[in-house]
Design goal:
The complex is a heterodimer of chains A (about 220) and B (about 400). Chain A is α/β, with parallel strands linked by helices and about 220 residues long. Chain A has seven helices and ten strands. In chain A, about 35% of the residues lie in helices and about 30% in strands. Chain A has a six-stranded mixed β-sheet with strand order 6-7-8-3-9-10, with helices on both faces. Chain A has a four-stranded antiparallel β-sheet with strand order 2-1-4-5, covered by helices on one side. In chain A, helix 3 crosses helix 4 and helix 5 packs parallel to helix 6. The longest helix of chain A is centred in the last third of the chain and has 16 residues. The two termini of chain A are about 20 Å apart. Helices cover about 55% and strands about 15% of the residues of chain B. Classes of the chains: A alpha/beta (about 220), B alpha+beta (about 400). At the A-B interface, helix 2 and helix 3 of A face helix 1, helix 11, helix 12 and helix 14 of B.
Chain lengths: ~220, ~400
């Protein structure tokens, strides 16, 4: 199997005045195509920093980061934006749907960034909303639907462009237990359909659903059972 | 993964900008108002100034154009000058014959006598009219045309027949009492109305004019050598005007025993004075409009910066989803340009209105050209671009992580 994401001795430090504060201490990590992984860690462990780097929103200080075998650290801002648009589907804890756009328009947005034709966009949006069971809510604004439906719309927005990897940051953090179970079941199904998924969570019950798990603590990461 | 790398051009940011503005119609409308008023004010002032210039140009032609020199009695500055002027006798009809002999570079001479207020009447009462007694050449020199005439001949005019030509507003005051061929009373004597001037409307000063033959008027008034209200003299060759003016001045001073008691001007002098007045007025009003437009620009800048702050999280999400920085730059810039352009276009529409509504209310008709309208739209677009640059650059430089934390 080929690696979708791979880091080698990935380090990140921030400057605080004249001091350099290390946050990640040489992370070695690999997620292969079709795998479902979870990174666990408490607040302040460095998992958000790692997620930002893996999502190409931030740059590592040193080391290597490859997405589908392509070195990321040397890419320009526009190339990073292009990589995010094509290869990475984000699912956020607080959904981050644009409030003035309907669910369908939110889902359509990444396809617009990719320059997909209007007819193809309509087709893919309809298919994806249907797949996630919220086709009947397509014309509603985010505030007009439940939390679970919002997170489904956010997942649809991430999936619609058929990304190489679905990166989910605490995707159940704002959901009740019933909706959490629904969303996790959905991730199971998406994994079953061949999607590569990486969850970032601090909840063991959520991480346990993944096929591979890593634990991050004080900027060091290791695989766990 | 599928999809192709896209260079978005301006269509996607335009669609997003339109969607954003549509979702804040009230804010967009209010922000655009300042530009609307600024552009409208600019166009109204510009159209009025051009209307005045058109009117002046028409008046200039009515006054005989560039080749005419106008001699008018100078007003004495003090009592000693007044005493000196009275000794020379002022500008008299008898001067004209001497000048005609002495100055062959002039090919037409039009002496004019002014009638007193109330001197021209209908059979039943006073008329509001400016009465002038002059020669037949005045029709030619001033390019006077007639709507209707009745037995108006050069011979009759020059031989001093009792006749008058009047403006249409004078005719209107006479109502049913008089038509061409009947009479008005001048100096207590009935004279036949032999023609009605063709004019451009009620604001045309000729509409209120009444003119009688100089030779007839002189007889009726029995004043011998009357003082002229003014003397127009046409220079045969346009290139000779400066020399002819100097010759005329010198000759009049000689006739008047060394007294410079006559002012000489050309229609160009009058036109230039008028142009200067209009230009000054235009400068002031354009300055006011520019201030209004700048206020509009600052308003747009302010609103766009506020909108950016309110949408910083959304823009961060868009960046995380793959929106390139250039797209966010274009979107913010286009929002600002659209607000300003819409304001500008509505301002153009408002700027056209005075020409339609007020055309008959003023002596001059406001006159807008396509260049003015293009200028209105261009200025508003430029203003929108300038006002939108800072928010657009800020949007472009947003850090996605910081923005999503906002």
């Amino acid at each position: 199997m080929s690696a979708i994401l791979e880091t080698r001795q990935l380090k990140k430090s921030y400057r605080l005045g004249n001091e350099s504060v290390p946050v990640l201490h040489g992370i070695d990590f690999k997620l292969e195509k079709g795998q479902y992984g979870a990174i666990m860690g408490p607040s302040g462990s460095g998992k958000s920093t790692l997620l930002n780097i893996l999502g190409c929103l931030d740059r590592a200080t040193s080391g290597q980061y490859l997405v589908e075998g392509r070195e990321v650290l040397a890419l320009s801002e526009n190339e990073l934006a292009d990589l995010r648009a094509k290869s990475i589907g984000f699912v956020f804890q607080s959904f981050n749907l644009l409030p003035r756009l309907t669910l369908a328009q939110n889902v359509e947005l990444p396809l617009q960034y990719l320059g997909v034709s209007s007819s193809e966009r309509r087709k893919r949006v309809t298919e994806t909303l249907d797949r996630l069971g919220i086709a009947d809510r397509a014309k509603h604004l985010p505030l007009e639907v439940s939390g679970g439906q919002r997170q489904r719309a956010a997942i649809a927005r991430a999936l619609v462009k058929r990304p190489a990897i679905l990166l989910a940051d605490e995707p159940t953090g704002n959901l009740d237990s019933t909706t959490t179970e629904e969303v996790l079941k959905l991730f199971d199904e998406l994994h079953g359909e061949g999607n590569t998924i990486l969850l970032i969570t601090h909840e063991h019950d959520v991480a346990i659903r993944a096929q591979k798990r890593w634990k991050i603590l004080d900027g060091n990461m290791e695989e766990t059972a | 993964m599928s999809g192709t790398s896209a260079t978005h051009g301006w269509m996607l940011p335009l669609r997003l900008a339109v969607a954003e503005l549509s979702s804040h119609r009230m804010r967009t409308a209010i922000t655009g108002l300042a530009v609307l008023f600024g552009v409208a004010a600019l166009l109204v002032m510009s159209s009025m100034a051009r209307g005045m210039e058109d009117s002046n140009r028409q008046l200039y032609l009515q006054m005989g154009g560039a080749q005419i020199l106008i001699a008018t009695p100078k007003e004495a500055a003090d009592q000693s000058e007044q005493a000196r002027f009275s000794r020379s006798g002022g500008l008299r009809l008898s001067d004209v014959a001497i000048l005609m002999q002495a100055l062959p570079e002039f090919d037409a001479w039009v002496p004019e006598l002014s009638m007193g207020r109330g001197e021209i009447r209908s059979t039943t009462g006073r008329l509001r009219a400016m009465g002038t007694a002059s020669t037949w050449d005045r029709f030619d020199v001033l390019g006077i045309e007639f709507d209707t005439v009745d037995n108006l001949t050069q011979h009759g005019w020059e031989s001093g027949e009792a006749m008058a030509v009047i403006g249409p507003e004078v005719a209107t005051q006479l109502k049913r009492e008089v038509v061409v061929g009947s009479s008005v009373i001048v100096g207590g004597v009935p004279v036949r109305v032999a023609g009605i001037f063709k004019t451009s409307g009620k604001f045309d000063r000729r509409s209120y004019e009444a003119m009688v033959p100089l030779n007839w008027y002189k007889k009726v008034q029995s004043k011998g050598d009357p003082q002229l209200a003014q003397l127009r003299a046409r220079v045969a060759n346009l290139d000779d005007i400066p020399a002819a003016r100097e010759n005329l001045r010198r000759e009049i001073v000689a006739i008047h025993r060394g007294n410079e008691d006559v002012d000489l001007s050309t229609n160009d002098d009058l036109l230039e004075d008028s142009r200067k007045t209009i230009a000054t007025m235009s400068m002031v009003t354009i300055l006011i409009s520019v201030v209004a437009l700048l206020s509009g620009g600052v308003g747009i800048l302010n609103i766009q910066l506020a909108a950016l702050s309110a949408r910083v999280r959304e823009l961060g999400v868009c960046k995380a989803l793959g929106a390139p920085s250039g797209l966010l730059f274009k979107q913010m810039l286009l929002e600002s340009m659209l607000i300003s352009a819409i304001g500008g276009m509505l301002g153009c529409a408002l700027g056209i209105l005075p020409g339609i509504v007020m055309g008959s209310m003023f002596p001059w008709k406001p006159h807008l050209t396509m260049t003015d309208l293009a200028m209105g739209v261009g200025i508003s677009l430029g203003l929108g671009t300038l006002a939108g640059l800072l928010p657009a650059i800020k949007a472009m430089r947003l850090d996605a992580i910081d923005a999503m934390r906002a």
